[in-house]
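ok so I'm stuck.
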Amino acid sequence: MHKVRPQHLPGLAVVVAVIAASLSCATDAGRAQSPPPAVAAAPSPAADTSRANPPRPPVAATPVHCSSRIECRKSGQRLAGGGAEEKAQAVEYFSAGCQKKDRESCASLAEMLKEGKGVARNDQAAFAAYRKACDLGQQGACRAVGSYYLSGSPGIVDQNAAKAARIFDRACKRGHAGSCFDLATLYDEGKGVKQNPKKAARLRIKGEVFEGIE
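replied:
not stuck anymore, here's the structure
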């Protein structure tokens, strides 16, 4: 018995070493093949953020009330510089003021619609609000309407430089400096009007005078 054991112990040690090495390799291979559970289970931060913060600003929860067009305008002006909810309420106030034929409310509503502040961007509605403000005598809005015609806007108005020139001319005659400068450029380039550099120069002088008054 004592002679048998010394003969088999070295062989047993070799087998154990081989098995241990095999187990070690299998364990290492398993670790290399198995993806880290924390990474697989982690939620996507971008998806969670987009769900928690939708891109569209909130709409005013309740209808606004203002007894006069001036009250509507002032309420809108007070809220327009605030956060998303305040801007949404400002849009409602400007809309109410515009319905009461307040030209400044119409112009402010047009700007918010064009820029998508407090409401989804809507160029067609913005143009309609600018045009109403212009009809009510807001000359800055008239210049905006003229700019639409000058460049053209698909689905809203076709390009019409001659009509833009007429709108700029009317606003310039009513004392709007920017419209005078725009009309001067058209006379310089002969766009929508017959080219006339001398008249363009006179219009620029006129615009500078109005600019000083403003």
